[in-house]
Amino acid sequence: MKMTLHAPGVVLALAMAIVLAWEQHAAVAAAAVQPSTRAVQPHAADRTAPITFTYDLLTGRCTASRGTCRSLPIHAVCGTSLTPTQIWRNDLALRSFNAEAQRHTRPAEPGYAGGNYISVGGGWRGAGDAYPDASIDNRIVLQIAACNKLQYTWNSFTMLIRNIKVVGAGSGATILQNVNAQYFHYDVAGRTNYDFFGDSFYGVFDHRYPTDAYGYLIDTARAGARRVTLKSPADARNFYVGRWVLVMSYIQDSMGSYPPNMRYYDFAKVTAIDPATGVIDLDTPLAFDHLATRPYSGATLYTAASRSPIGEGQVGPARIVNIDTPVKPVTENFELDGIHFLRNPRSPFLNRYSDGWEFAGAIDARGNDLVFDGALDTGEMRDFTLTNSSAFYEEADKIIAKATYVNDTFVNSLLHSGQLVWHASGGRYGGDGAGRLSCAALNCIIDGGAVLTAAERPTGPQPDMELDRVGLTDHVSFDDVTFKGSGAPGNAAIDAWAGFAYTIGAPGLALQSGPNGPNTRLAVSKCVKDPRGCGDMGYPGTMAQRVTSDWGDGSTLVRNGALVRGATVTSITGDARNIYIDVKGATLADGDRVYFSRVNSVNVTNSTFVGIGNTCHPAAGPDGCIRYPGGKNIPHIVWSGNGGA
User: Fold this and answer.
1) Distance CA 422, CA 430 (A)
2) 534-561 pLDDT, tens per residue?
3) 1 CB burial (10 A radius; 0-12, 13-18, 19+)
């Protein structure tokens, strides 16, 4: 019998029925596929090798590097003016792709039934429909051919897949647009994966519910160690051999932002677990000291210690976070290539500072030849590399161990806080006569012929590079960089913010003896603004919050307006009432007005300055080229081979 479908509702109902049946079939059905649709099983020696499954979104066809795979039950469609039914069809194609990818990459494991991750009665579980070849090491490729506009409302199509690559035909040929209007995370162009911390898998970030969103407390662990010890050995049940963890310490801006802005962190895989002692062995030695005595905030995380193993407000002291579990696998490798993402015309959050792709929840991620009409948001990755791409707004923000940008163009590139290294090679930053550029990463590197143009604003005291004030920056390096300005007297090449100074003996700042001797410890109260709860770290602008963010280990003392070379911070620690800054190389006294350098060194070499103004004469040195509000506060400056006017 031949059936012709004309009504869009009939097409939609049929498509929904196909996909729902596809997503809910049992593991038995998957194992019982007829031989004609499955390849002969490989030899035993080959069965553990990863398989690559490649899906074409516009045809639905699938190919495999070994064996076979099912084509998608429905494929996507392109068009400059799609109907709601066609957009829904695209959602169904994306959902079926994601379900198939999970079936090939999520085998059954202890605590997880395997296969597609589905909602069941308000909870979540595996559907038990994994294919026999499922392995977390399998690779998934989604190809999207040239398409003048592919619209959709479901942006989670790459999530929960360990190794995935999405490839377009080039940013000038493949154009995608999310037209959802629901909530910020669902309105952006796409999401690499769930983040490491506060999504529904790890508990609700709300004082009404227990949560383990920020992992578990550990004893002090030193750089070079290959194991950590949980404060509570019972927490060992939450970790898995062979899966990724994040060891972190030192909260830079308390709980005033999300995710937590950690200064020190290490990525590693678990190699062994001792449930009796709580010892977790790691495959990689720690790069940082993680102190159990670091300052912490109790301002926002209200869960009482009796209800949750984390303890109240213990964000800051050394912790280990189980970022990778069978229920919630971390993305180990992610790549996005050759796509133009239009802004979402329906989002209530519509502005040029949102609306792009969320690179987050991954170990290593890469992007190439990408165009974002709005923003590019990144966070929570070990290594991120972006090449030959552009966006109006870029915010590489929090827990990116290394972010590398090569030949990229951004109007605004801001808030590089919580990164260990931010490296921009080539490209152009701060354009359109209104752009900005700032960095507060632990280490900032700009080189390779990069052009900085934020100071080209026609008026106002605008720098090409702002050394931001949301975290300590240890080192900044510029090599073979062009600084461009409008010639306005107030402009500068680099704005080196001085920091906040405080008087010893004033309310909230007391002088004590410490491990470095008498009068070498500053005690900063966490209770001035909030005397009952001692939650000052959670209030932006308080002394406790500022010194924790701006000062750091190795910072040089600035006393009564002058650098005291050789006098540095040895450590910053804390307890329920105070933050402690221990100093070596100087003794302090009541009445001293002090702060500590928030940028320890700047190198500017082989660079050119054009139209900076503000008496900048680069061949003569940094005076006039680096603006120092409040005094020259950078302990170490290297300046050589620079020219221009």
Assistant:
1) 16
2) 888 877 889 998 999 999 999 999 999 8
3) exposed
